[in-house]
């Protein structure tokens, strides 16, 4: 059968001249035997053998049926192999992505620490030195008005630069996240990011009082908040935003809702060349890497709602990539 690729039928194996079947006949009591090729696109990928205790059991209808079953099983086996290969690829992808996101968090923390220990400290020293020079100039009644004004302008620039460095540090790794935890960090970040643009912010926290959560949970939900707020500022044109975080002993659920212009979720199937959709993609991947689930609800003119739920008992990649759905 393997040579010619055709189904092989033996009506009575006891009449076969070659000593191939004594065990089948003497111990199993088999008489009839059929060997069915399992094919995929004309290629044999396996063999299915069926035996019968009855002589002449396999007729033309059986042969036709078994041929169909062989084709079906061959295709099914090939699909299973492809699925297993795809799962291995997905597992490697998730492992690499988790490593990349973890490395990103470490790098954010390192850069924020260096900005605090070096750049911010230097700018603070520069500001104090300029302030001292301005004081000395005023005490000595230096009459060069242009010089004094430039000195004051330079002092103002130094203070502004230091404020920007502090803002960048908080974006990279908010100290509140490490010191006071997720609730304080989300509450402060949301209000500081939106209120200067005239957007009303309402926050609600349930079951999070005086609690710390696994680091991967805190980082994940904070980064999802950052991504959602970033999308609101860039696209939503919203006037009101609500943030709700509710935790119990098993999981935390974050809900971020705005009254902006919304969008058609069905049109966002991937990351566009211009970067559109990247924010939701990152949120989905972050959620799935801690075993969580999430979804986006939005319609043109009706605002957008993002909900992410992450378990508190997981800190490794989930075996099933549930992800962030629309």
Entry keywords:
326 residues, alpha+beta, Beta-Lactamase, Heat Shock Protein 90, six-stranded mixed sheet, 51% helix
Characterise the protein shown here:
This protein is an alpha+beta fold. The chain is 51% helix and 19% strand. It has 7 helices and 9 strands. The longest helix is centred in the first third of the chain and has 80 residues, at 60-139. 23% of the residues are buried. The model is unreliable at 315-322 (pLDDT under 50).
CATH topology of the domain at 180-326: Heat Shock Protein 90
Q: Structural class of the secondary structure composition?
A: alpha+beta
**Cα distance spanning the termini:** 50 Å
Low-confidence stretches: 315-322
Count every beta strand, where a strand is a DSSP E run of 2 or more residues. Answer: 9
CATH architecture of the domain at 180-326: 2-Layer Sandwich
Gross morphology is: elongated
Instruction: Average the pLDDT over all residues and give the rounded result.
Output: 82
Question: Main β-sheet, in a few words?
Answer: 6 strands, mixed
- The CATH homologous superfamily of the domain at 180-326 corresponds to Histidine kinase-like ATPase, C-terminal domain
Task: Detail the topology: elements first, then pairings.
Blueprint: E1 8-10, H1 22-26, E2 32-40, E3 43-52, H2 60-139, H3 145-172, H4 175-179, H5 182-194, E4 200-206, H6 215-236, E5 240-247, E6 251-258, H7 278-289, E7 293-298, E8 304-311, E9 323-325
Parallel strand pairs: 4-5, 7-9
Antiparallel strand pairs: 1-2, 2-3, 5-6, 6-8, 7-8
Helix pairs in contact: 2-3, 5-6, 6-7
């Amino acid at each position: 059968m393997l040579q010619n690729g055709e189904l092989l039928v033996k009506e009575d194996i006891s009449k076969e001249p070659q000593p191939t079947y004594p065990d089948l006949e003497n111990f199993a009591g088999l008489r009839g035997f059929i060997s069915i090729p399992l094919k995929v696109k004309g290629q044999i990928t396996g063999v299915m053998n069926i035996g019968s205790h009855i002589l002449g059991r396999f007729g033309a209808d059986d042969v036709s049926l078994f041929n169909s079953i062989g084709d079906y099983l061959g295709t099914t086996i090939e699909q299973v192999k492809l699925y297993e290969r795809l799962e291995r690829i997905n597992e490697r992808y998730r492992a690499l992505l988790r490593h990349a996101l973890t490395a990103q968090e470490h790098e954010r923390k390192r850069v924020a620490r260096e900005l605090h220990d070096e750049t911010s400290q230097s700018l603070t020293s520069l500001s104090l030195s300029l302030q001292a020079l301005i004081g000395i100039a005023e005490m000595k009644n230096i009459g060069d008005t242009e010089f004094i004004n430039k000195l004051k302008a330079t002092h103002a620039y130094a203070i502004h630069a230091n404020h920007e460095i502090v803002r960048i540090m908080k974006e990279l790794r908010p100290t509140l996240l490490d010191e006071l935890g997720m609730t304080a960090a989300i509450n402060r970040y949301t209000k500081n990011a939106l209120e200067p643009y005239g957007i009303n912010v309402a926050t609600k926290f349930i079951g999070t009082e005086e609690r710390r959560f696994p680091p991967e949970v805190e980082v994940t939900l904070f980064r999802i908040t950052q991504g959602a707020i970033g999308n609101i500022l860039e696209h939503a044109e919203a006037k009101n935003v609500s943030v709700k975080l509710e935790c119990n002993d098993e999981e935390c659920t974050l809900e971020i809702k705005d009254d902006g212009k919304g969008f058609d979720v069905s049109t966002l199937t991937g990351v566009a060349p211009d970067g559109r959709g990247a924010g939701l993609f990152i949120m989905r991947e972050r959620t799935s890497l801690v075993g969580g689930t999430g979804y986006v609800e939005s319609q043109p003119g009706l605002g957008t709602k993002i909900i992410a739920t992450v378990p508190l008992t997981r800190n490794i990649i989930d075996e099933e990539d549930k992800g962030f759905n629309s």
